[in-house]
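The pair is quoted verbatim below.
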Amino acid sequence: MTNNNWHSAEEIQTIFNRIAPVYDQLNYLLSFGQHRIWKEMTVKWSEPLSGQIGLDVCCGSGDLSQLLARKVGKTGKVLGLDFSQELLAIAAQRAQQDYPTLPLKWVQGDALNLPFDDNTFDCATMGYGLRNVTDIPRCLRELHRVLKPNAKVAILDFHRPSQPWQQQFQQWYLDNLVVPSAKYFGLKDEYAYIMPSLERFPQGKEQVKLAKEAGFNSAVHYPIAGGMMGVLVGTKNC
């Protein structure tokens, strides 16, 4: 099963390079400032401990990476990976300005071909990235591969709610808030991908199934924000 046949990996990379300068502002506007809470929940579910090595895939401007780094502390290390060089530059600049002592390293790379050895990381996070990869099962297999035994990954993303009234609200939200906000920043076309990506994105039960097929011994999906968001947590037990 593949995802997002409507865009190639190169096209998606170009989109995120273009939106990089206003990525944080749009996230704040489009989530009513709640995205920080959702990210903190995601990091908590990945169960990072002091001194561990963490990975944040599709790290964007580095919010999850920073939260993860605070949990592992100065004796740990966190690698933030993204395929957008522009977003990585912003992530590095923000981290240096706000938290220069955090144990962070930034890596440009592909979520479908992680440039790390097997059994490297004690915990991992991914925010708003799984929906945009071109091959979800392969991405999950790569995450499983690089995690150590007993490690967890927590994956946050937008979802299509199951209830009709929630779907109607989400459509209104996208039409009346997301599109106008993106248009204000001159990025209407770049944000037009959101609804098609939501329609193609597997629901919670399907994500759990895909995670188990990728090798995770246990997987749980937690719907949040009225079902418009969700966190998939996978545990590698062997």
About this structure: The first helix runs from residue 9 to 19.
